[in-house]
Amino acid sequence: MGRSPSTGILAATLPGLFPVSPQVISVHITLSLLEPKPERKFGVVVVGVGRAGSVRMRDLWSTHSSSAFLNLIGFVSRRELKCIDEVQQISLEDALSSQEVDVAYICSENTSHEDYIRQFLNAGKHVLVEYPMALSWTAAQDLWELAEQKGKVLHEEHIELLMEEFAFLKKEVVGKDLLKGSLLFTGNFLSCLPLWKSERKIST
């Protein structure tokens, strides 16, 4: 039995039902693939509308099925922007107190992540935060514990965790102790700017 990803048609060979070779018998069943309709939508506020925040807002506005469960309520920014593509700017206080807001996407500068996470968790909101969650292991551990106490989801968005390289390394270190190592980050924001590098040493 196989399925054609392009047509959504399920093809099944049914041997024994007809007095001919099963290789020439096939039944094509056309499936009506309907996207599930969400029982309710989660209200989302985006905190910080730089590069990452702008992309988050764009995706929340998209017609992709994953966005069907989310409703963009507004955005929070230190700048007076009032409105971006028909999305209204709201104050941090309103975002924290609003009954419409269920989830906060933290896309601000790294040094502000810990404080924003703590405020939204204490306000009873789920939190998605761009990497890094905090600037120290102790702070991150404290935030995880706070999320658990509040019964809320705290998710750190780190695209590298979905890469094949990470899956390979995770498998390689099972049952081993990390003695030392290094992390090397390279990249640039615009093609016209020089490449920057940052290396951190890891030791126990």
From TrEMBL:
SUPFAM superfamilies xref list: NAD(P)-binding Rossmann-fold domains (SSF51735)
Keyword annotations of the record: Acetylation, Cytoplasm, Metal-binding, NAD, NADP, Oxidoreductase, Phosphoprotein, Zinc
Domain of life of the source: Eukaryota
Pathway(s) served: Porphyrin-containing compound metabolism; protoheme degradation
GO molecular function, one term: nucleotide binding
Presence of keyword Iron: no
Domain Gfo/Idh/MocA-like oxidoreductase N-terminal: 42-158
EC id: 1.3.1.24
Location relative to the cell: Cytoplasm, Cytosol
Enzyme class at the top of the EC tree: oxidoreductase
Secretion signal, residue range per the UniProt entry: none
Function of the molecule: Reduces the gamma-methene bridge of the open tetrapyrrole, biliverdin IXalpha, to bilirubin with the concomitant oxidation of a NADH or NADPH cofactor. Does not reduce bilirubin IXbeta. Uses the reactants NADH or NADPH depending on the pH; NADH is used at the acidic pH range (6-6.9) and NADPH at the alkaline range (8.5-8.7). NADPH, however, is the probable reactant in biological systems.
Family according to the record: Belongs to the Gfo/Idh/MocA family. Biliverdin reductase subfamily.
Subunit organization: Monomer.
Protein name: Biliverdin reductase A
Species this chain originates from: Myotis myotis
